[in-house]
Amino acid sequence: MRVIGFNFTKVVAEKMKGFKPGFGISTNINFIDIEKEGTDIQKEDFEALRVSFNFSVLYLDKEKKDSKKAEVSLTGFIILMASKEESKNLLKDWSKKEISAGFRVPLFNFILKRCSTRSLQLEEELNLPLHVPMPQVKFGKKESKN
After folding, report:
1. Among positive and negative, which fits the CA dihedral 49, 103, 113, 69?
2. What domain range includes position 75?
3. Average pLDDT over residues 120-130
4. Looking at residue 108, what DSSP letter applies?
5. 101: which strand partners?
6. ∠ CA(44), CA(3), CA(116), 5° rounding?
7. Is residue 135 part of a domain?
8. Is pLDDT above 90 for 17?
9. Rounded mean pLDDT of 59-68?
10. Bridge-based pairing state of the strands 23-37 and 2-15
């Protein structure tokens, strides 16, 4: 299975009025649909699949768990080139709204890689705390070699 395409179809970033510290952060990836995709790339033993997803980061009030204080949501799709056997298995599992770990883990990793960078940019623009800590370089005294 290879990724041959990726696109965002909807990008939402919103901070509610009166946003203050005291929140919990929830990050989710939901698969919306998996279907066959027609492409210009024709290979005899392969099929293209469109995997639609939603990646969201919710800032929830700690006291009122249902109360959303801010949100970053990215909806999009991935186009995969899979063997006919892989395609058949994935579509069969999806008919039960399931995805086997062999497919789910690489898809999650790809979505996290592509969406985390975009969501961090949007969080920074809205002055929201980042859902993933950014690495920092710390300067200190050099240790002497004795």
Report:
1. positive
2. 2-125
3. 90
4. H
5. none
6. 170
7. no
8. no
9. 78
10. unpaired
